[in-house]
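Open question from group meeting: does this chain pack into something compact, or does most of it stay loose? Before anyone orders reagents, we agreed to write out a predicted structure and look at it together. Recording both the input and the output here so the notebook holds the full record.
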Amino acid sequence: MRALRTLLIVVVVLGGLFVLADRLALHFAEGEVADRLKTSENLSATPDVTIAGFPFLTQVATGTLDDVTIGIDDYEADTGAAAGDGAPSSIRIENLEARMKGVEFSGDFSSATAADATGTARISYAELLKTAKAEPTQVAPGATAQVIGLSDGGDGKIKVALKATVLGVRVPGPLYVMSTVAVEDDTVKVHADALPKFGSIELGERTIRSITDFQQRIDDLPGGIRLDKVEAAKNGVEITVKGSDVKLAG
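Structure tokens returned:
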């Protein structure tokens, strides 16, 4: 009986030591991946990295991590805009969280590539407004219009607020337009469902849509993930991203 008790104590102690070693190794790996991702993506702050699964050391032995979650609070994504064309060269992406599956890595974590990745993020309305025509633009002789605000219109729509003047007199308002938001070829596109009226002035659809409709290309997301879907929400446009062969480091 004493020998059995001793054996059980040894098993418990060894098991505890294994768990401790496993958690220490996990913490070290998460820190290494986070530091290398910060460097490779030129981030201003260290991202959150969570490696799921237990035990961790058995995943290390295979050279593949089953499930890794990356969290980046703020990311400046390139828009592809040329210098001097008046468009923003970057756009701020908030609360980017990406879940990576099947992450193959080198022994020192200098390189790590996920087989597949999916995630979510948000673009605030204030940030998206930067790509709209926020300066007064002539839409007809004696008439100007400009976008002055974006907000949630409900049912997945964006409510676009316009300020308009006719013959120097501001149209009571603002005028509101409900718009559909969609993604196409890495570009977020906002398209008015119906066009506003400017009193008795007849406006060509192309002319007024040059104000109400706008788009923003988003390039160079972390690891090569790409836009998949977008939807208007309370605090901004919620975006879904996905990718394959996504590089976390190296």
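Observations to bring back to the group:
Helices lie at 2-40, 56-62, 125-129, 205-212.
The mean pLDDT is 82.
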